[in-house]
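Section 5.1 Outputs to date
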Amino acid sequence: MALKFLNENDGWEAETPLAIVLNQKTSVSVVAFENFIKSFSSSRDLSYVLEETKSSKKYPLTYNHIQFWGLIYAPQEAPESFKMTKKVDWFDSFPIPINGRKVDGFNFDWMRAARGRVHDLAHPSLLAEELKLTQNEWILIGDETGAGHELLHADNKGEGVPGSMRKNLAYIWVLVQPGTKLPATPSDFHAMDQKSYKIDHLQALDTLVGLGQNCISFIFESPDFVEEEERHPRGQDTHVPLVIRNTLPIVIDYISKQIDSNTPQKIRIMSEGIGVDWSPGTDAGFLTSELRKWISNLKDRGYDLNLTLSGLQIHPKMDHPWMNYPDAVGFLTGDDVPPYLQDYRNQIMSSSVQLPYLSSFLSTVYPKMVQQLSQKPLEFIQSLIDVETKQIAAYRDPVISEMCMEAFSRFSPIDWRTFNEFMVLHQRRPNGRLISKILAIFMQGKLGHVLETLLSDADRVNMCLTLGWQMEQQGGDISSYLNRIDADWLSRSPERMRHSWLSLLIMSKQNVFDFEFRSEAFVSAGLLLDEVSNPNDLYHQLNAANGPESIDMAVFAKIFTFFAFDKSNIAGHKSSLAKVNARLMNHPWAHQRENRRHAIYGAEWALDYSRDSPEYFSFARQRLLQHYNQFLGSGESNRDDPFWWPAAARMYFLGLQSGYLKQDDGSLQTFLQHAPLYAEQGPLIVRMRVSFWLIKLMSELNIEPSSAIYESLVEAEQEFVVDKNVYSLLHSSYLIDLNHHYGYGDSELLRSQFLYRISASDEQTAAHFKSCVEDEALLPSSLLSFNYS
């Protein structure tokens, strides 16, 4: 309770402590006010506590509207266990600190509760001031949750994890558009204290939901385990200034796309103070300099901006009526969100921009990328190939996707030629897959026009091949791209492009589970000397080739996959495929990632025979844990190739299930530490297969899999290009298997979905799964092999 006026004749009821406040707009001095409180309390046998005088400096905004305050109360007896506690009074079994210090064991004390209500008195005046400022001003309100212990460098005793009972650091920016009216929140609001602030929290969330796009949140959260290269520099134990510097450019980029050309706008940054390095009065010069740099870059990219920094305001908690909105959002990022907040969580998170906090990317890689984008968009696209895959996956949407769209929109015909030649070499790489996927989205409704602008028929063929291979990689229908390739274009294109067109046409068969290899087209196109009908023929032709070039080896590699899917049990065929795989793995490819890819293919093939053969399991394990590593360059690891992870998950599960491995295997423990990341990021097929095999592996180890792993698999269908054929049937196969063995999901719904997808698919797909349609007891996963398994 807080009163503006009190005199000697006022009565007194000891139902609760009373806060008495001296406003700024009064002629009474602080000294006279203190004397009044002392006299008033003494005459009624009451006690009092005066607010510390340093509060006026600690809370400058609030103390522009109040001068001073104190708390009067009728003290009561201390609880039995606290009778010896000094400098504390008590009321209703809760403490009233005399010296301003918190009493251990109590989340509530009367002085802090009163301080919140007193500070609320300043809110109407503060809101009126804000209303005058915000007409042409974007406001960024920032605050963090979590201590950020996982970001500490190893030399500062950091271990990459939050620490006992701590939450990962999340920095939340609430972006308020010009002219938006935000109501106040209680000054002492704390979302973690749901018992005290449940209603206030719900009101704050209602406000955010109601404002929609006028008030959105950017959430940057550190991962469960932070790699050493992603932690902050040695000696950096105050995280907030660096986190702000690293995250602001992405928010500024978003704002720039919402502003009309050359419209004067301002941006004001409000952040909660943390320690002495980030406190009220901190110089905003570094942010002004950074903002000028970002604005200059955006102008180079074609944005006609008139955006200036109107101020950096660092507020302590309880000194501004809006500073609690990030806290209201931040609570929703935790693991233990109460059921009554789930709907709010879904609504707010769906409209928020959620990104991980990876320091090395945000501080080093991203600034370099935006600089390249502004000057040479083609070089920007090409540079993405060598960015760490985990970083690309983490910032794909919306950051990198939008940057790629912007780059594509600025391409010239010669840029398109260079780009498509570049993709010939790099499209199979994880980052190449992502680039081509973004390209396909960009080309929707534009492809015809772009093809007309290209310089030659070969350029047109190459563009269609880039898009066609992209669709093949996603398990979609490539005919829309192949049908655009005119026969005359093809006849005027280099032999390499004609070979690629034929390979694409034939490889599309695997997307409809047609694994019968027909070599006639390869022979007539000159890609094979003689027809190949089995693995023995393939090995003989490979041996007959005199120092085959990589383009020839690529043909042999494609044929290898057909025979791998066919899963022959003829001993001679298996021996020949093992030899072909060894030749492919050891071929001097232009880049050793191709060697690594064939090590993975060899493992996937051998695992099909490993349940009853320790020799084939040993072959697979050697491919993944020994041969793969032989083709790693300096600074490279299996974390650079997401396709290693599903093969390894499958290998570890089958090894444990068959008794070839023990649970205390050291490489298994290391694998389990990192594998969950690949259930959430990387190519879609990688995420699906890692999720599937990781759940089986962890269940075999009696480890409860995270619900996020299964949810990642379930939600994969949202990314399907079409709900039929390869990806959708693999998806159903994995889910039905997990339901059968571990009880995940609803068996009837999964069966119904499987049958629907079969009915929507091509004849070859339906034929492949015919036995599962006729016999419900036969699991679709039993019909999968090689890298579909």
